[in-house]
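Before relying on records like the one below, remember that each one covers exactly one chain. Contacts with other chains, cofactors or solvent are not represented anywhere in the record.
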Amino acid sequence: IGVQKMIKRNAIIRKLPAVETLGCATVICSDKTGTLTQNKLTVTKVWSGQQEYLTSKLIDQRNKEIEIPTGIKRLFEIGVLCNNAQLEKEEKGRSLEYRVIGDPTEGAILAAAAGCGLTSGDLSQKLRREGELPFSSERKRMGVWVSDVSGNHWLMVKGAADVLLERSTGFQNGEKVVQLSSELKLIIKQQIDSWGAEALRVLAVAYRPIEPGESRDPSQNDPEQGLIFAGLLGMTDPPRPESKQAIEKSRRAGINVKMITGDYPRTAAAIGKQISLLRPEGKIITGAELDQLSEGELAEVITEIDVFARVSPHHKLRVVKALKRNGAVVAMTGDGVNDAPAIKESDIGVAMGISGTDVTKEASAMVIADDNFATIVAAVEEGRTIYDNIRKFIRYLLSCNMGEILTMFGGILLGLPFPLLPIQILWVNLVTDGLPAIALGMDPAEPGVMSRSPRPPQEGIFSRGLGKKIVLQGLLIGVATLGVYLIQLRGGQSLEAARTAAFATLVFAQLCFVFQCRSEDRSLLENNQLQNPYLLGAVAVSTLMQIGVVYLPWLQKIFYTTSLRGNDWVLIAMAASMATLCGDLAFRFRKVIRKHLAIFHWKTHRGKSPVVK
């Protein structure tokens, strides 16, 4: 039932134990792009020849037939050629829009270039792709070999701005190529930092001419060296509106959220601040800095780090191991093939349903159908609710069974005829217990389910006093049933009538008690008993079935019952309700005692806040 609820919230559970583990999660490590952000990338700014341009202004210039600067043309040429995405035109009303087929980042570059009048179809008439150095999360760049009709050859590269800057020795300044001096490098770094602070995702493009006969085998030499830096592309990827609320909800639930991204640190920090993920005291660390830390050093500082930037998949694995070394229960997201080891190592591996690879999904315990971080938090909430409902189910059934055992055992000790017959016990277990127990499994989340700390993974199912509650309520149900049985026998009733009264008392004591089982932290009157219509329906059906067993002649023969009088029902109602009310009073009394003990503890230990468990 719980897993079906999760599917409706876009969380597909692949491994059933993950449902229980979700309630214990203390850390969620999440990708940025597409998970915390919308993955709707748009190129808003370009920079070339030490000049910054707004893409919207460039498109306006092109529409007014004003010449676009040469450096910008070169920048977009590289972006279009070093690209595997495609654009499909879509007419929406009077406007023309593009639909991206392929990577959203590459699609955004194609869309911006098309707006400036440059398409892959136009370029293919002059330039031809001859080979590719594919993008990878470790390389953080992609290269293509290109030739023109005159027989000239180039290597064109697109990738992370800081990576390409370190591999460049020249700079495209308008129509001229100049040496990339340390002063120019500083200017470019300042531009990258400035855009990063605006939460722009920054990509760079570069190129270099290929000498005749030069080897193109990357295993023999590194062709992506000595590049000419052509410019920067700044893209917006707005945060998902629900991300901030989901992160705040996680923090209230005692769950830390960490962003793990391949983006530039400034960009990651800006997004982190927008969605309240980066705390005022939180730290940012890059993959290069991560490599300098030993396993022990990383475990010491990892709780202070909120954002991991410029990281590769193998860094994710180190992060998971360090968090687990600190006793954390980790949920890790991923989509690429290389993310599989980290997902496998984590306590709850979370694969992306839209962008995730088959390898990642196979390694995961849960798949998020909409790639949305808020869905992970919703799954945690649902996991906690499922675990609560399992405890309610166990509390109800075991208390009821304890009541039946004590009734039979007590009757034997007192030397009485059996209070219940086997067929009657079977009826209670299969019918009147079964329906309400299943309905408890469909109970909605309790208020405050995401305002409490994660439960310890080593916590047993009978922890937090559940075992004591089961024994106490079983004892009350047994005493109530035996009490009615004795009163009926001593009052001169026949054995069949006394047995029928005890049978009815047991059933209705359990049906009253089921409403108390809806919460472990609140009393009977504090619960909104109308929240679970399935439970109300189950109790109503069980009540009608029990009345049928008592009054319908053909059922009386099967269950050895007899019709009861009005004063019998008054006695049964009083005994059944008292069994539940006494249990509820015991709960309230225990709660008051604990509250006063906590206040006393606080007064005797000034400076420490009272903690009521």
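Confidence is low (pLDDT under 50) at residues 609-613.
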